[in-house]
Amino acid sequence: MTSRPTSGDWQAGALRRSTADWPFDWVGDITSGDPIQHDRTFIATVRQSGARPFEEALANLNVMARAPTLLRLIEDVVHVLDMSDPDHPTFADSAADCLDALLDQEAPLRAIFAELRASGPFVPTAS
User: Fold this and answer.
1) Which of 6, 17, 27, 80 sits 20 to 30 Å CA-CA off 102?
2) pTM of the full predicted structure?
3) Strand-pair partners of 41
């Protein structure tokens, strides 16, 4: 990935119908927040088929708004995998070091999972 997503705290806006009549689409905006300047920057408008149930479309929008957080967590977990690879320069010759690095991500992983799980009924759960 050569460029990074827009910085800031991404948030999904309200999900609304594009028109009052059928056919319609579900439309929602994603913005990025700057906590220092108390400012919001427009990132994208997400348009989904009106045939999708409202709850599903809302969950989809919320998942898209969490993309930068998910990317950061994936990068952190991949770093832990690199630490366990003897051929990688970041190799840590200790399972405890790898586990500690992974456990450092436990709280953010659990928080994003709980948030996504609460946003809709169909977010996968661990089996």
Assistant:
1) 6
2) 0.71
3) 32
C-alpha closest to that of 65 among 32, 18, 20, 99: 32
d(CA 66, CA 98): 26
- For residue 104, how many other CB atoms are within 10 A of its CB? 11
How distant, in Å, are the alpha carbons of 28, 43, 59, 104, 122 from that of 31? 10, 5, 16, 28, 24
Tokens of 103: 């456990």
**CA–CA separation, 16 and 27 (whole Å):** 5
The three state secondary structure string of 98-118 is: HHHHHHCCHHHHHHHHHHHHH
pLDDT tens digits, one per residue of 37-87: 788 899 999 999 999 999 999 989 998 998 998 888 888 888 888 888 888
Between 106-118 and 54-65, two packed helices, what is the crossing angle to 10 degrees?
160
Distance CA 59, CA 68 (A): 16
